[in-house]
Amino acid sequence: MHAYRTHTCGALRASDAGQTARLSGWVHSKRDHGGLLFVDLRDHYGLTQCVFAAGSAGFVTMERVRPESVITVTGTVVNREGATVNPKLPTGEVELKADTVYVQSAADVLPMQVAGDEKFPDEIRLKYRFIDLRREKMQRNMKLRAGVIASIRRRMIESGFTEFQTPILTASSPEGARDFLVPSRNHPGKFYALPQAPQQFKQLAMVAGLDRYFQIAPCFRDEASRADRSPGEFYQLDFEMSFVTQEDVFNTLEPVIAGVFEEFGDGRAVTKPPFPRIPYDTSMLLYGSDKPDLRNPLVITDVTEHFAGSGFGLFAKIAASGGIVRAIPAPGTAANPRSFFDKLNDWARAEGAGGLGYIQFDAEGPKGPIARNLEADRAEAIRVACGLKAGDSVFFAAGKKDEAPKFSGAVRTRLGNELGLIKEGEFKFCWITDFPMFELNEETKQIDFSHNPFSMPQGELEALNTQDPLTIKAYQYDIVCNGIELSSGAIRNHRPDVMIRAFEIAGYTAADVEARFGGMLNAFRYGAPPHGGSAPGIDRIVMLLADEPNIREVILFPLNQQGEDLMMGAPAEVPAARLKELSIALALPPKIVKS
User: Fold this and answer.
1) By the 8 A CB rule, do 212 and 249 touch?
2) Residue 188 — φ and ψ, nearest 5°?
3) Nearest to 471 by CA among 434, 504, 509
4) How far, in Å, CA of 430 to CA of 427, rounded?
5) Secondary structure of residue 511 in the 3-state scheme
């Protein structure tokens, strides 16, 4: 007989009754019923009930053993009878009548319980992550993650892609976040950067003629934590294809993504390919976001023209100064109490807006503070434009062109939640396309790249030379699911002349481009195919499938919101001798002394 187990704790069934079996695992829980001690023994595969008779050596041993101790139990498999059968467990028809038990590892008093559904602070969960991961939900999430990655890898290989590994130690690149830097011992004063993404390397793989590359790639960004973004590191399905158009990329990725969500979605509805294609400008108009949640049926309407020169002075003034007014419908709310509207107004002010104006439409016509100061024909035009009927209301977001659309999107989301309009149990996908190539930095008033700097501008060199940069669109696209951005991608800029000119518009000289991207630029001079790709985030995919609100719940050993590993004590100070070896002198900020 094997030293530790003949079966896992999830394997025994009624057909095994009468056999001698040996199980090893963690003591999940104990129940003393006088003459019998029941122990639920747990491992990665499941849970089996073991029974120890009073007076036996095993009974005495198990009375002293704490939960989460690791034990090995040998005994006979017996059928449970009648009401003792547990239909909730795959092993619930049987139990192990223990003959012997050996304590492999005794547990100390636990900082957190594994059995049960008690909630614990994140600090405790992350410090003792190895205990937190023993819980059923966390085990389920980690198995889901492994299954998703295996499925993606299989689907990509079946689609003709080859998996390659790109370097971890590389040069700094402007990907939109801060790099993690690694000092070079052999080159004092110089640093490697951990890759924010394998962007340049996957493009170089195309130049090398590898045609269809992918990897489950680790990426590193020194940026703040969010519910859908882990600080420090994350993983993505990174892929690139040669001789493809934007539609080729879409048609290749959609079956992979849809297939994974159908495979692991537990019967939830999944958008069938082809996914909707929504231009960026359209998305910002209709949904107030470039990450629209299409489960929300509310659609935003621009009503600036209906307020321009109107009797409602505030919005008329905004329209006259070049601002915009967006209308967000609230179906069936016209008869809601005043408190409903006041609560939303208070929320808007807490979000930094001046308030949230509205009009109620009932059988007698428009009502509310705005309606009292707005001409009747204008109010009726707004009703028609928004597709409203008697019993509906409409809210307004007004302000500068770069602010009002985003706030209208926040209002749309808030109303969708408040009114219970967001349909659960489905995954709604779309592509957001035609992103602006450039944007105006509000602080510096300089033109910056708005998305990926290595994208091909629509119109190529002619557009860069003849158009207002802020009107140029790029072959850039995001894939969005339920309001979560899963991926950014693009058809790449594979021509040196176009690349140098695009960077010149963003304030980089040709020498800058040569210095920072010389490897890729030089490669393009020796024959580069048109190519494009994308990089869906693994963590976000699993977060959606697991229906978890925070990405930490699907990562094995995540950092906390401050970017710290509470379990391993990272980041940590290093000895002075090591800093000297690396030619590094610290210039720490002064410590703040609390009075």
Assistant:
1) no
2) -55, 135
3) 434
4) 10
5) helix
Omega before 469 cis (within 30°)?
no
Question: Which residue in this structure is represented by tokens 């030089």?
Answer: 522
Residue 174 in this model has a pLDDT that exceeds 70: no
Please tell me what DSSP assigns to residue 287.
T
User: What per-residue confidence (pLDDT) applies to 594?
Assistant: 64
| Cα of 300 vs its chain's centroid, Å | 25
Query: What is d(CA 495, CA 527) in angstroms, rounded to the nearest whole number?
Result: 9
**CA angle centred on 238, ends 234 and 244, rounded to 5°:** 155
Phi, psi for 69 (deg, rounded to 5): -70, 150
- Tell me the helices (H) and strands (E) count for the chain, helix number first: 18, 24
Residue type, 122: D
CB atoms within 10 A of CB 120: 14
Tell me how crowded residue 380 is: count the other CB atoms within 10 A of its CB: 14
pTM (2 decimals)? 0.93
Question: What is the rounded distance in angstroms from the CA atom of residue 233 to the CA atom of residue 306?
Answer: 48
Q: How many CB atoms lie within 10 A of CB 41?
A: 25
- Element housing 202 (H / E): helix 199-207
Nearest to 138 by CA among 162, 161, 120: 120
Rg of the chain taking only CA atoms, in angstroms? 30
Of 217-226, 301-310, 435-444, 583-592, the range with the highest mean pLDDT is 301-310
Question: Alpha carbon of 306 to those of 49, 321, 324, 369, 381: distances in Å?
Answer: 71, 15, 11, 16, 7
Residue 231 has pLDDT above 90, yes or no: no
What span, in angstroms and rounded, lies between the C-alpha atoms of 287 and 411? 10
Q: Dump pLDDT digits (tens) for 462-501.
A: 999 999 999 999 999 999 999 999 999 999 999 999 999 9
Is pLDDT above 70 for 102?
Answer: yes
- In sequence order, the 6+-apart residues with CB closer than 8 A to the CB of 586 are 579
